[in-house]
């Protein structure tokens, strides 16, 4: 039997292929217009089918958040891989092995301790690692300030140790907290300017530092000018989600990932519909909780994807979801959403929801379904 | 090389076997003393090694939250399985197939629509399904009030259709919101009394209704008397977690699940230690957020499990965790927690954190590690 949205086991992660393709083309076109390479962050989809479409559209190389992702990408023939989490010394042996097999795997550090560990491992194995230095452009996570003297000290440790300083890298993760175009444009410019400034600091001291890598989906889609930047990394743009809708950098009909679910019961007095998608499907991500519109655990849509205004997955247990209705449930709740009928839920955060599944089902423009596996491992 | 906590790839899910064994023995002893069977909910661990220890200690049968769990348990030779989520009609074919292969699989409903679908599928395949009726004892999720006339109507539909009414079932999930012993004892009694009342309603109308199944970890550990109850279901007790600590039904040294993580950097000005355990490891569960003590994404411990008072995983990105220190970070932050050193994080919610991993590493009393896989599938 050909699977359909009516027969697929639920909960299932659906990808609207038309929307995803549009998201990929839009981001690629913007990066092309700004004159930079796009290096998609594949932690969002962790899917070969999705990555292939990104690369076919013009992306160059991939960004990963674990070495398992790097291994899986390399196994698929993708050789240009940037591991954009500060390297733990114990991982250098695995990095070296991947590089020996032909993977151009770049690694990241923002500390003298990290640089020294890289040099030690590199010298022990006669391996000149490709190293990026992490810059902090908005105070939200890791990285060095562009004017931190440690930046030059780390570069010097790497140079003296025979390692290759590829470039500087930053991520304006605080962009997720914004929702106004002007603020997003300002943060995009800050991300660009501070990362370029770090590269200039290094170049002024005689370090080549050829690459400048920046990126987050909101800043990438808000930037007006990327002078001095060589590549942009972004991940969630490929699916978009409710957090990004609240940020204001996509429209409701750009959201490509949804969770297919089945109605399993009702609490008519409470106005609840119970479904078989809980947090094991949607994840516990409540990324819209602190935004201007809180979508609970997700926005509920009809089977065909039509947004049901006011219908939210307001509660989630492991395999139960509770749908409630702002302004009151329909009087014919049990007839409108009978036991066994199906709905879709748009997630807060596509990366987190995708992470709950082993595979996706892509829905093409004709409605045909294709299973797309996720990469093996974390 | 024998794996150790210093060489294991991180993040990793560790089980302290001594604590887990104590948790299993304590719950079993309480159920034995109260004269009821214990049917553990295996959605918490989804691990054969853990289930075996529960069954070896005296548990009878298992509770599952998906049919994939039921399939996996049956494949391991566990034949007494209760699927404690209201059945979606499309799943009845899979239920029937499992039963035909010898699995005593019980199913649940709380609606006339569900009962009619069960009867229809049962009659089509000459299968007398074992059906439980779900009772709502605290308004938190699914189920019928004990005095809802639909209870008898559903029982009548099942009887007329030749199905087997096994019993009534409830789950006092609101117990997670409590934290005082008296309130927990009262809710445990409410859970017992209302579920027994539902059974009595049915028996008064001539339905046998032999079984009365209740349970949640907090009520199971708080109940003083379980007269009329035949079995108790509980899940998270096997690992316990910070939510349960806040509820007050375990001690800090009962928490058996933790996430091993590696330090990857620092932000000394902010007093942060950065680690490689983010929400992909801990999950996005913030279950302690609304409790009297908020642990962020988890309580940080030294490698040996010693609780570092005031050290919380206060922020989590996909593969990054930010540790901060209440009352200020140690002055020697980078020396105290050097890059490459390891810590453990106790999770808010063991079910959600376990769900982020493919396997566990059990640590026995001697410190030896054993990999324990999780069940295949969801």
UniProtKB/TrEMBL annotation, chains A, B:
Pfam families: Ala_racemase_N, D-ser_dehydrat. Its EC number is 5.1.1.1. The keyword Membrane does not apply. It is an enzyme of class 5 (isomerase). One of its GO terms (molecular function) is alanine racemase activity. SUPFAM superfamilies: PLP-binding barrel. The keyword Secreted does not apply. It comes from the Bacteria. InterPro entries: Ala_racemase_N (IPR001608), D-amino_acid_metab_enzyme (IPR051466), D-ser_dehydrat-like_dom (IPR026956), D-ser_dehydrat-like_sf (IPR042208), PLP-binding_barrel (IPR029066). Residues 256-364 form the D-serine dehydratase-like domain. Keywords: Isomerase, Lyase. Belongs to the DSD1 family. This is Alanine racemase. It comes from Pseudomonas flavocrustae.
């Amino acid at each position: 039997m050909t699977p359909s949205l009516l027969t697929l086991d639920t909960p299932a992660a659906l990808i609207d292929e038309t929307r995803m393709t549009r998201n990929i083309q839009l981001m690629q076109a913007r990066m092309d217009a700004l004159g930079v390479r796009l290096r998609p962050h594949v932690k969002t989809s962790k899917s070969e089918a999705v990555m292939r479409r990104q690369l076919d559209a013009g992306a160059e190389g991939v960004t990963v958040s674990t070495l398992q992702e790097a291994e899986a990408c390399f196994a698929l023939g993708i050789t240009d891989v940037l591991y954009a989490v500060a390297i733990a010394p114990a991982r250098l042996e695995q990095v070296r092995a991947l590089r020996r097999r032909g993977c151009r795997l770049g690694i990241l550090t923002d500390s003298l301790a990290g640089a020294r560990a890289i040099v030690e491992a590199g010298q022990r194995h006669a391996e000149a690692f490709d190293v990026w230095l992490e810059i902090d452009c908005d105070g939200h996570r890791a990285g060095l300030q562009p004017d931190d003297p440690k930046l030059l000290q780390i570069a010097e440790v790497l140079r003296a140790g025979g390692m290759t300083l590829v470039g500087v890298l930053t991520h304006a993760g605080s962009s997720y907290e914004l929702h106004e175009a002007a603020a997003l444009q300002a943060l995009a410019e800050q991300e660009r300017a501070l990362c370029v400034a770090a590269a200039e600091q290094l170049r002024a001291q005689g370090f080549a530092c050829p690459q400048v890598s920046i990126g987050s989906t909101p800043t990438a889609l808000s930037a007006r000018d990327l002078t001095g930047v060589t590549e942009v990394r972004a991940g969630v743009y490929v699916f978009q989600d409710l957090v990004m809708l609240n940020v204001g950098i996509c429209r409701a009909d750009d959201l490509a990932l949804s969770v297919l679910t089945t109605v399993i019961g009702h609490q008519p007095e409470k106005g609840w519909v119970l479904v078989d998608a809980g947090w094991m499907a949607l994840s516990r991500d409540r990324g819209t909780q602190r935004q201007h519109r809180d979508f609970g655990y997700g926005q509920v849509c009809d089977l065909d994807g039509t947004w049901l205004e006011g219908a939210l997955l307001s509660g989630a247990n492991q395999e139960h979801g509770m749908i409630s209705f702002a302004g009151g449930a329909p009087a014919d709740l049990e007839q409108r959403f009978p036991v066994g009928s199906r709905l879709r839920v748009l997630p807060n955060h596509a990366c987190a929801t995708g992470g709950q599944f082993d595979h996706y089902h892509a829905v093409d423009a004709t409605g045909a379904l294709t299973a797309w596996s996720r990469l093996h491992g974390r």
